[in-house]
């Protein structure tokens, strides 16, 4: 995870540390400190989760853009994925039966 992704979490943690090292913490009771840590700690955990979810969303968006760039439209108008590191065809083609003899025609009005 790069530091810019978790900058808000780091800031929240540093703020919590500063609070605990400050003068007000020195004069607080244990119960008051515990209450503050519970609240600030939950906030920090929520921020860590949000930073993780933001990173996950960014990676999913990047993957979707990569996938969209690797798709092509065939002469029939259908989308097809293109494997960037594979050879085509995957096996030697010796003969191709005609489509009409192998597959029934699609119902009227149906394409792809």
Structural class computed from helices and strand pairing: mainly alpha
Uncertain segments are 99-103
Q: Gyration radius, to the nearest Å?
A: 29 Å
| Tally of DSSP helical segments | 4
Secondary-structure element string: HHHEEH
Strand fraction band?
A: 5-15%
| Major beta-sheet overview | 2 strands, antiparallel
Terminal CA distance reads 41 Å
Description:
The protein has helices spanning 7-21, 23-27, 30-69, 99-102, and strands at residues 71-73, 79-81. The protein has a two-stranded antiparallel ribbon. Residues 99-103 have low confidence and may be disordered. Helix content is 57%, strand content 5%. The protein has a domain at 1-65. α1 runs antiparallel to α3. The two termini are 41 Å apart. β1 and β2 form a beta hairpin. By secondary structure, it is mainly alpha-helical. It contains four helices and two strands.
Draw up the topology in text.
Layout: H1 7-21, H2 23-27, H3 30-69, E1 71-73, E2 79-81, H4 99-102
Antiparallel strand pairs: 1-2
Task: Please name the defining characteristics of this protein.
about 110 residues, mainly alpha, two-stranded antiparallel sheet, 4 helices, 2 strands
